[in-house]
Amino acid sequence: MKKPLLVAIVIAVLAVGAWVLLGSRGASTATPASAQGGASTPSSAPTPVLEFASTDLLTLSPRAMVRSIPLTGSLRPTDQTLVKARVAGDLRELTVREGDPVRRGQLLGRIDLTEYQVRVSERQAQLMAAESQLAQARRNLDNTNQLKDRNFVSQSALDQARSSWEVTVANRDAAAAQLTLARKSLGDAQLIAPIDGVVAERFAQPGEKLPIDGRVLSIVDLVRMEIEAPVPASEIGSVRIGQQVMLQIEGVSRQQTGQIARIAPSTQAGTRSVPVYIALQNRDPSVRAGLFAQGRLVVESRQAVLAVPAAAIRDSAARTFVYVVTDGILREREVTIGLRDDSEDGQAWVEIRSGLSAGEQIVATNLGRLRTGAPVRVIAGNAKPASGNAAGLVSPLR
User: Fold this and answer.
1) In contact, 218 and 208? CB cutoff 8 Å
2) CA distances (Å), 153 to each of 53, 141, 167, 168, 368, in order?
3) Of 255, 253, 365, which Cα lies nearest the Cα of 310?
4) What residues contact 138, with CB distance under 8 A and at least 6 apart?
5) Which of 16, 61, 106, 289 has its CA 20 to 30 A from that of 266?
6) Domains in the chain, start-ordered, CATH in brackets?
């Protein structure tokens, strides 16, 4: 046999022997492991528990609920006016400034009176002349009438005397009217407050020459205020004149009470809302025009209603449900909801029409998706669980 062939045979025999040896060792090693695995099973993981602070849970009980419409708007005076110059002239005096209270009929300032005093004197002189002419015409008429009775004058002379007297009567009346106008102009040179209120703005200063209808002052009445607030068209059917509105005005600590005074006859273009006007009798000196106000108009009230916080309501896959703790286990409970009440301390409550009963305990806050069927443990007060997890998170059962 040739040497190369002999070497190849030896190598093949050695390879087969090594393969057989390795296979037998692997089988002997796997046998104990398999036997051990058949002898025992892995232990079950502990069931997780949900830990809640006591403030996260709520025991249901009947309560009063209201349905209200939120209203917002800015305060504006019901009565406000501009004091304008009714006659032209130099403004000689102005005694009030912004923020000063004024009373109706109070003298606020004066325009130069010289021209108007002279005009009054002129019209008085004209009236005196007209009255003198009237007296002379009356005497002439009486004399002519006597002469006619004696047939010393003709009827034509009597008619002429009577016509002259009538003309002087008209002249006297015209002079009296001119005097009345002159006196009115003299009075108009004095600036008088037309309403009770507060000076809001001053447009002129002493020394300025004012034209007729030149603006001098703006006066607002802060006792009677109103708010224009839009109401959705879908809710306007619940609004009635005389309904009370509780108002919170910015910068004013005390809540104010207003009443629906007027309702607009049509919707506002582009908004589909109907303006309503809320009247406010203001006795608080801190309430000012232009302040922003928020209020709620109560349109429905119910007693002994079962309700839950709006945060407790969950929606998923077209289902409305809450988390209920029953016999220490967390479960989901589908509910039918109704009236919503947003009026108490900024927290909304929702009426439960079906699905829950008084005395049941629910999760009152939104803690995210929770594991249903898990046991529940309550941590007293607002303390966090001992594990360090926040209330409502899963922690291992100890």
Assistant:
1) no
2) 123, 12, 21, 22, 120
3) 365
4) 165
5) 289
6) 51-60+313-395 (2.40.420.20), 70-78+222-298 (2.40.30.170), 80-111+189-220 (2.40.50.100), 113-185 (1.10.287)
Alpha-carbon distance 279 to 259, whole Å? 5
Model confidence over 324-347: pLDDT tens digits?
A: 999 889 999 999 998 888 765 667
Distance CA 204, CA 392 (A): 68
Token pair in block for residue 15: 């390879």
88, 210 contact by CB (below 8 A): yes
| Structure token pair of residue 394 | 């899963």
Separation between Cα atoms, residue 52 and residue 43, nearest integer Å = 28
* 153: Cα separation from own chain's centroid: 88
When the pLDDT of each residue in the chain is averaged and rounded to a whole number, the result is 83
The greatest distance separating any two alpha carbons of the chain, rounded to the nearest whole angstrom, comes to 199
DSSP H stretches of helix in the chain: 3-39, 114-149, 155-188
Judge contact between 295 and 71, C-beta under 8 A: yes
Instruction: Provide the whole-model pTM.
Output: 0.60
- Position 6 scores a pLDDT of 55
Structure tokens at 228: 């224009």
Instruction: Specify whether the CB–CB gap between 93 and 192 falls below 8 A.
Output: no
- The answer to whether 375 and 328 are in contact (CB under 8 A) is yes
**Over the stretch 184-232, which tens digit does the pLDDT of each residue have?**
999 999 999 999 999 999 999 999 999 999 999 999 999 999 999 999 9
**Token pair for residue 43?**
């232990």
